[in-house]
């Protein structure tokens, strides 16, 4: 009698966790995966380049002002003779930090507010959502500009101001998800076991809505970075000598004139900002498709 041969059986897709299925779908998205690695490369460069470079972001050599890219200065020098390569990648640190921290602040507020509104429901939910509608009607960027003028230009002010005005959409997303989950069996079981409202929200509901939260976070980061670049372009963002991509673009555009175009002052920081925003949006789109339960 022939001995039975054990044939390895691949794990059925149904037996995988939602996170594993989402990761598998994300890996199949070539554009999103390519943008993820490109984004990771830019992020690592913002950390490594200022460390290994022989120049610093504030070091000035007035005799070498506005030099074109060369073997010594790969991206040329700026209006004050500073190495543009170091300033671009150091500015990337600032722009990434603003985007990530402000997004984190907006997510904390939006997730907590939306989850509480959806879970409580009734008149409380109605009042809380009408408050969000009122905030939506305000000119956010105008208020941000006023706040920057009043409180000054600093990291903390930029982080808090941009974060405090970016949570409304997230609260609506979370509220909708909570409304669909609060009548599920696992929530009823948690209530029957004596769990309080806070425990049900933070231990049972929020872990089940992490997919939409992660997706929206990846789409919020480029939005916040673009807002910071706009403020820096107007001279209301991060102040000198600390660079940011928006500030570098503003400085470079101010040096343009009909007699000579100092193209490298605009092209390099603008290209880094555009590439980062494109990659972040592509990764966000890829994550949205990956977490879509209708995808197979």
Which spans have pLDDT < 50 for at least 5 consecutive residues? Answer: 3-13
Distance between the termini: 42 Å
CATH H level, superfamily name of the domain at 99-237 and 281-291: MetI-like
Rg = 24 Å
Structure write-up:
With 296 residues, the protein is an all-alpha fold. It has a domain at 99-237 and 281-291: MetI-like (MetI-like fold, Orthogonal Bundle), CATH 1.10.3720.10. The protein is built from 12 helices and no strands. The two termini are 42 Å apart. Mean pLDDT is 82; it is low at 3-13.
Quick structural gist:
The chain has helices spanning 18-28, 30-52, 84-120, 122-136, 140-151, 155-164, 168-181, 185-192, 197-205, 210-233, 245-254, 264-291. With 296 residues, it is mainly α.
List the SSEs and their pairings.
Blueprint: H1 18-28, H2 30-52, H3 84-120, H4 122-136, H5 140-151, H6 155-164, H7 168-181, H8 185-192, H9 197-205, H10 210-233, H11 245-254, H12 264-291
Helix pairs in contact: 1-12, 2-3, 2-12, 3-4, 3-6, 3-7, 3-10, 3-12, 5-6, 8-9, 10-11, 10-12, 11-12
Defining key terms:
single chain, 296 residues, mainly alpha, MetI-like fold, 12 helices
